[in-house]
Amino acid sequence: MHDMSTRARAVRWGVPAAAVLVVAGAIGAGPVIAAVQGEPQLPELTAEQLIGEVSAKWSGPGTLPPMSGTIVETASLGIPGLPAAPVGTSPLALLSGSHELKVWYGSADRFRLAIPGAMSEQNVIFNKGQAWWWDSAANTATKIKLPAEAPAPAPLPTAVTPPDAARQALAMAETDTAVSVGNDATVAGRAAYELVLAPKAAESLVRDVRLAIDGETLVPLRVQVFAKGAAEPAFEVGFDSITFAEPAPENFTFTPPPGAKVTEGDLPALTRQHPQMPAGDLALTGNGWTSVVTLPFDAAALKDNPILASARPVEGGRVITTKLVSALVTDDGRLLVGAVTPETLEKAAG
To answer: How many whole angstroms separate alpha carbon 81 and alpha carbon 86?
Structure first.
């Protein structure tokens, strides 16, 4: 274990503010993320040295280098009751299969994310105080209202991009975690270090989280989450291709095309990090790998949901178990979720 101050600095990397975009609209399977190709040779670093170098390089907000590329998110959670191939723009589509996202990043206030579809594309574009959400299938362009005090949304701890997911994983690793360096990997054709974070808590369903860190720029290129007892990652987000260069200016400009319906408002509800709910409704217990989120939940409203129908009865509620996440729906109207054993959720529910 390296010292906590070094790790705490590491979680303050600048990450693309484009993390506000949900990939719930992603459809169609993209190419699989580039796997190891040969054995890249990088200077040897200990885990403490690697985290220290990454922390020193990306300690401030908005410090990532200009880049563009294609990101692939792959989920194989083994959710009971989930159709083999969820379709459309349902959030269920994110819980299985592979989904592609294109990114152009110039700076903290100039970036673009695109979700390609079979015959359409959705985009969110931020360019120095102006923001648009463009849906080509619906032919709608929404001019996004931004807070007066900020030119772009603040970075959020989501797993939309590899740097975002790496930041979130390192924040979790501030608790009891074994940290090591694995074998060097090749991701998107680039040699990368592999930083391995393994929770020590027996209650955690996570075996380890593996961060592939670019050997030249130290930008996180891929994050893989492995469940205990599994040979393949349950969740993975990484670059399939990446170029470290200033994207062309036209990538950050947008003019609604003729005939498009133009409106002004917030990002669509599904693109926000959390559903809107009154303050205090969501509670967090535990910390790090054993965190449990509790929120109100109306099970009756989802009585025909195939996932809920497959839940296992327990005293005081029903449990849904996947490779990586457990959920407890209580009879008194609560939902408890965490990457922990069902027993841990039952204890948290009292």
So the answer is: 11
| CA 295/CA 334 separation, integer angstroms | 6
pLDDT at position 243: 97
**Which CATH code of 3.10.290.10, 2.70.70.10, 1.20.120.430, 2.50.20.10 fits the domain covering 47-150+160-265?**
2.50.20.10
Q: Which fold has domain 283-349?
A: TATA-Binding Protein (3.30.310)
Give bridge partners of residue 110 from the DSSP assignment: 107, 127
Q: Between 185 and 4, whose confidence is greater?
A: 185
pLDDT at residue 254, rounded to an integer = 92
295 close to 334: Cβ distance less than 8 angstroms: yes
CA-to-CA separations, 332 to 1, 269, 278, 297, 317, in angstroms, rounded: 42, 27, 19, 9, 8
Examine the pLDDT at 248 and tell me if it is beyond 90. yes
Strand ranges across the sheet with 292-296: 283-285, 292-296, 334-338, 326-330, 317-321, 312-314
Query: Residue 145: CA atoms inside 13 Å, Cβ hemisphere, count?
Result: 5
- Give the per-residue pLDDT at 18: 31
Q: For residue 110, which of 89, 136, 132, 94 has the smallest C-alpha distance?
A: 132
Residue 153 has pLDDT above 70, yes or no: no
Dig out the tokens for 348 from the structure. 């948290």
pLDDT at 151: 45
Residue-level pLDDT at 90: 47
Alpha helices in 173-321 (DSSP H): 306-309
* CA gap 240, 18 in Å, rounded: 18
Cα separation, 149 vs 154, whole angstroms: 11
What are the distances in angstroms from CA 213 to CA 26, 55, 63, 224, 258? 26, 12, 16, 12, 43
| 180 backbone dihedrals φ, ψ, rounded to 5° | -150, 170
pLDDT tens track for 201-245: 999 999 999 999 999 999 999 999 999 999 999 999 999 999 999
